[in-house]
Amino acid sequence: MFRPLALFIGLRYTGAKRRNFFISFISAASMIGIALGVAALIVVISVMNGFEQELRSRILGMVAHATVSSLGEDLTDWRGAEQSIAQHPKVVGAAPYVEREALFQGRRVSGAIVRGILPEKELAVSDLGKKMIEGSLDDLKPGEFGIVLGLELSYALGARVGDTVTLYAPQARVTPAGMIPTVKRFRVVGIFEVGMYEYDRGTSVIHMADAQKLFRMGDAVTGLRLQLTDLFDAWSVSEELSDKLGGGLMVRDWTQQHANFFRAIRTEKMVMFIILSMLVGIAAFNLVSTLVMVVTDKQADIAILRTMGASPGQILRVFMVQGITIGVVGTLFGIALGVLIASNVETLVPLLERTFGFKALPGDVYYINQLPSELRPFDVLKIGLVALAFSAVATLYPAWRASRTEPARALRYE
Fold this sequence. Notes:
Layout: H1 4-15, H2 21-62, E1 66-70, H3 78-86, E2 91-105, E3 109-117, H4 119-122, E4 132-134, E5 146-150, H5 151-157, E6 164-175, E7 178-192, H6 197-202, E8 203-207, H7 208-214, E9 223-228, H8 234-245, E10 249-253, H9 254-257, H10 259-284, H11 286-297, H12 299-307, H13 312-343, H14 345-356, H15 377-403, H16 407-410
Parallel strand pairs: 3-8, 5-7
Antiparallel strand pairs: 1-9, 1-10, 2-3, 2-6, 2-9, 4-7, 5-8, 6-7
Helix pairs in contact: 1-13, 2-10, 2-11, 2-13, 2-15, 10-15, 11-15, 13-15
């Protein structure tokens, strides 16, 4: 604990005008360096938090919290499985689906995933109905062979609502001319935009009855998609459902389907925190040179304090107060700047894009085309404490050197 005398002298030294301008400049540079390092760390971590949250919400808008499928090719008794699953208290929705890959031909040719759904049940397990920018999922009628395309896929095919596209299914038919693929013409009845290029470019939706007929599945489906009360309970619920349904069915949750992806994001966030913390540390350790020069400049003052009865411990605390004060001021300025920028990233980035004519996140390169930000108070507190810890450590050696000053030697040439 700092005594009042050490605190008073330390604060007085911090605020006093120095005879050596270079020392004042180094002190200011150290403070600015800490502030910029803290601000950069807050902004980067907030953007990565927002990136993770945005991707999770967009992925889970298209991917169910959990899926149930057969260990074989298709799930035949899906109605019985659906009734059994619905009894679980944490399952709030279940919907059958058919999913296959196919080739489309409009004005141009492109491959995509074809997902067969029941529109009346799809709303219970995904946000697809809310992502429609033209048409509606209700426009998918069994037997009418309507199709809903992702926005980027519609661009790739050159197809709009009302146009027709030809679908080539991998299931081949035997004819006198040999094996030929199944071909069917679909009318575009809607277009959706999730905001994630992977889905907007590679996904199309048709009615489940049309998909079953097209892929010759009879009454079977690929599986069931589930919506849970809490997506973070997906793993435990999947384990419970797997035990309940028996060995013939496989239950996978969203964390398993995208485990590598979200693990990579967490790893990147941790690595960025370490790297930028090192930058904060470098700025904080500029305090070492600052305080060493201050101690050299204040040799006479230290000697006088010692002759007046100040102990080495009090001298050490004087210079620790000075260094930590610089660190605290720099950290507070950095927190204020970082919070200000992180809270306005979604406004600042579009402004910079319009001003300088560039695109920060092109949709065909990155998963999302906007830079999100999520400021979390715990992260701000953690970053502030790290900066203060670096500042405190950086003051130890110069303060110790000051406490070892011998009054007689320091006053010899005064």
